[in-house]
Design brief:
6-stranded mixed sheet, two-stranded parallel ribbon, alpha/beta, 509 residues, binds magnesium ion, Rossmann fold, metal ion binding, binds guanosine-5'-triphosphate
């Protein structure tokens, strides 16, 4: 007879016994020591399990809440005022954060002085005090006559000495200008040397190719690298409200944060020295900068548009005395004017209370240069609203990254793509026609402000109408983004209209 021995079955205890409690039952001959160890193990396992449950619950809650967050994208070409608008939001809803980072903007302000000084000296080298009235070429090219000469194979004088040789003889006024310039150039040489160190400091040494003439891009959170206090001590920035994340949505995790902290500590010592050095160079050369800026030859170059300086460059050169004073700390006005190109997408978070209801707003400030636009796409599908910024006063300017493309043409093209993008079709749409500088006349035509603005407004409105399958309303504002007083009431209006639309679409879901 064959007998089979079956392994003990959990069912062998009878049908009424719960098989799991059988499995968990302590061994029959368990010692006291083993019992304590087992209970400890069970308590540990329960703690781990409870904490996973808690985490899952918190994640679910965060997901639920974050679905209710408002996501606002600031879009537009480079130098259209997106980062300036973001600063205005910060000024209104989180002023202490902007206040805390004022000092870190010194590096940008100093860079915003050194760069235009280089350009002025280069323009003087190229054109000298030439009385040549051949202005047409200069107007058509954003780089002035130098490009046209190179393109046509004409020799381009590389220095004023070459110019002197080319012109054969110099008038007495030209000789005296040359002498004065040589002195100024020699005295400003340290500032020009510091320019590239400032650029490296800001960009973290990242060179973005194909981005135009010596552009300097910064990633979000550059301010947190270090904050050199006026007393010479460095302190980490605590981003109380304006959180930072990097492009591609990866947030700054702890490990990355520690690494950054370490790097920034090392950088602090150098930055302090760099900023201190530039501050003393500026205070020593203040009069030279003033003299250079006041030269009739410089005014002539600007009038003839062979030298085109951006508004922020003029702003800082006009304020050179204050900015180069010892102990200088940028004012909020300075921070609003300071210019540095955004790289990727910077996220800023504000908790806003609108009509008694608090919502979390995520503001996405994107890099607008052509090479940066691909980073916008991941932010499209859950965008609540878009503010598109179009600088209408840039109608006679060309893209830095592509000198053949007119800035208004580029803006209209981009606006068309945004209006017709399927991912954005439910997003509330706001258009800011911003006025970066006073409107200049084009050629012989006198352009009065109202005509030019009305003309471009009509163009943008038409682009919207032709690409508006959803019958979405377009809210338009005409403004200068650096004008804090005007901006505060516009931002409140925009905020309310975004919020109304948000409530409406939430009710429809
Ligand atoms: N007068 C005036 N200046 C402005 C206005 N908007 C921006 N600016 C100035 O123009 C410069 C560039 O503005 P940003 O806000 O840095 O431009 P952006 O759109 O963020 O540019 P990217 O980051 O390169 O895409 C800043 O120095 C501002 O001071 C405006 O509406 N009026
Ligand atoms: Mg920007």
């Amino acid at each position: 007879m064959i007998s089979t021995s079956r392994p003990p079955s959990v069912n062998s205890a009878g049908p009424d016994v719960d098989p799991f409690s059988l499995l968990l039952r302590p061994p029959v001959n368990e010692t006291e020591h083993e019992r304590i160890a087992r209970l400890q193990r069970e308590a540990d396992a329960k703690r781990v399990s409870d904490s996973i449950d808690e985490q899952l619950k918190a994640d679910r809650e965060r997901m639920r809440k974050s679905k209710q967050d408002i996501r606002l994208l600031l879009l537009g070409q480079a130098e259209s005022g997106k980062s300036t608008l973001q600063k205005q939001f910060q000024l209104l809803y989180n002023p202490s954060a902007l206040e805390a980072e004022r000092i870190s903007w010194r590096t940008v302000v100093y860079f915003n002085i050194a760069r235009p000084i280089r350009r002025i000296l280069e323009a003087l080298d190229t054109y000298g005090d030439s009385d040549d009235d051949d202005d047409d070429l200069a107007i058509q090219s954003p780089y002035g006559r130098q490009d046209i000469r190179s393109a046509s194979g004409m020799p381009v004088p590389s220095s004023s000495a070459d110019f002197a040789a080319e012109e054969k003889s110099l008038s007495p006024s030209q000789v005296s200008l040359e002498k004065q310039l040589n002195v100024i150039r020699a005295r400003l040489a340290p500032l020009l040397t510091a320019e590239s160190s400032l650029a490296d400091r800001l960009s973290g040494g990242i060179d973005v190719s194909g981005s135009g003439r010596g552009s300097v891009f910064v990633r979000s959170g550059w301010q947190s690298r270090s904050l050199a206090l006026p007393f010479g001590k460095a302190r980490e920035r605590t981003s109380s409200g304006g959180r930072f994340s990097f492009s591609g949505r990866a947030s700054l995790d702890n490990q990355h944060g520690n690494e950054m902290e370490l790097k920034s500590r090392t950088a602090d010592a150098q930055e302090d020295k760099l900023v201190r050095d530039v501050a003393s160079i500026l205070s020593a050369c203040q009069q030279d900068i003033k003299d250079l800026w006041a030269l009739p030859a410089v005014k002539k170059l600007r009038d003839r548009r062979r030298l085109k300086l951006e508004e922020w460059a003029e702003y800082f050169l006009n304020n050179i005395e204050r900015v180069s004073a010892s102990g200088y700390i940028p004012t909020i006005e300075d921070v609003l004017h300071a210019r540095i190109q955004t790289m990727g997408v910077a996220e800023h978070i504000f908790d806003m209370s609108v009509h008694g209801r608090t919502t979390r707003w995520h503001l996405y400030d994107v890099g607008g240069a052509r090479g940066q636009r691909h980073t916008w796409i991941p932010y499209f599908d859950d965008a609540t609203a878009i503010i598109f910024l179009a600088p209408v006063s840039a109608f006679d300017q060309y893209l830095d990254e592509d000198p053949r493309t007119n800035r208004i043409d580029d803006s209209l093209q981009l606006f068309k793509q945004i209006c017709s993008n399927a991912l954005l079709k439910r997003a509330h749409l706001v258009l800011f026609l911003s006025l970066l500088s006073s409107i200049t006349s084009y050629g012989d035509r006198a352009n009065d402000y109202d005509t030019v603005v009305a003309y471009f407004k009509a163009h943008f409105t038409q682009v919207h109408r032709r690409n508006n399958e959803n019958n979405r309303v377009l809210f338009t504002h005409l403004t200068s983004v650096v004008n804090t007083k005007a901006m505060q009431s516009i931002i409140t209006d925009v905020r309310d209209s975004i919020f109304r639309n948000y409530l409406k679409s939430a009710a429809l879901v």
